[in-house]
UniProtKB/TrEMBL annotation:
<dbReference type="Pfam" id="PF01902">
    <property type="entry name" value="Diphthami_syn_2"/>
</dbReference>
<dbReference type="GO" id="GO:0017178">
    <property type="term" value="F:diphthine-ammonia ligase activity"/>
</dbReference>
<dbReference type="InterPro" id="IPR002761">
    <property type="entry name" value="Diphthami_syn_dom"/>
</dbReference>
<feature type="domain" description="Diphthamide synthase">
    <location>
        <begin position="5"/>
        <end position="209"/>
    </location>
</feature>
<dbReference type="InterPro" id="IPR014729">
    <property type="entry name" value="Rossmann-like_a/b/a_fold"/>
</dbReference>
<protein>
    <submittedName>
        <fullName>Diphthine--ammonia ligase</fullName>
        <ecNumber>6.3.1.14</ecNumber>
    </submittedName>
</protein>
<keyword id="KW-0436">Ligase</keyword>
<dbReference type="InterPro" id="IPR030662">
    <property type="entry name" value="DPH6/MJ0570"/>
</dbReference>
Length: 216
């Protein structure tokens, strides 16, 4: 029942991690895919140092590898196989909610490494999952978002008030369709808070990114 968590650094992977532990699974190692330069995460644009700080707060090792989107699947499977040789894991935990193609991919790559995929958030109501996450004491901030939201939303804490704002804008409260991505800065199961600052904002491919700097 030892698991690897596909760790984006954001709210969904963190909440899936938490719910997996409630189901009796034991966290063993985190996995994050970096961009081809190895300095930021492939999906959320989070600096490596910040992700390492999260792993330290969880008191778990984190495995990084760099990839382009083109060789993502091949490298993902290769690295899963490497991790299974170094850690006694049987399951892989993912934070997807209801996109079937994502689940199919996660089951495919997990099976290739003789792991069983677990999706603790699967088929949950998107809004309710966010509210449950907030109630569980997980604190996350928006670190990237599309132009419909705009750069002013970078750094906003995911709370009940923001959920209402997103609803009024007809934007999914979970950001499951890529409207925004988050960074978890604190949780009851972190040994310490992750202190970050936003030093400027950038725009790339119609998407806004916060330039995050780890404090301390």
């Amino acid at each position: 029942m030892n698991f690897l968590c596909s760790w984006s650094g954001g709210k969904d992977s963190c909440f899936a991690f938490y719910k997996a532990t409630l189901q009796g699974f034991k966290p063993t190692v985190l996995l994050n895919v970096m961009n081809e330069f190895g300095d930021r995460s492939r999906s959320h644009g989070i600096p490596k140092a910040v992700l390492q700080a999260q792993a330290n707060a969880l008191e778990l090792p984190i495995h990084f590898f760099s990839s382009t989107w083109g060789d993502y699947e091949k490298k993902y499977i290769e690295n899963l196989k490497t991790i299974t040789k170094n850690y006694p894991i049987t399951h892989s935990v993912f934070g997807d909610i209801d996109i079937e193609s994502h689940r199919a991919w996660e089951e495919k790559v997990s099976k290739a490494a003789d792991l069983e995929a677990v999706l603790p958030l699967w088929q949950g109501d998107r809004k309710q999952l966010v509210l449950d996450m907030i109630d569980a004491g997980i604190e996350a901030i928006i670190v990237s978002c599309n132009q419909e939201l705009g750069a002013d939303f970078l750094g906003r804490i995911i709370d009940a008030e923001l959920v209402k704002t997103l609803e009024n804008m007809e934007i999914d409260a979970c950001g499951e369709n890529g409207e925004f991505h988050t960074l978890v800065v604190n949780a009851p199961f972190f040994k310490n808070r992750i202190e970050v600052e936003i030093e400027g904002k950038a725009t790339s491919s119609n998407y806004n990114f916060a330039n995050l700097v780890l404090k301390g």
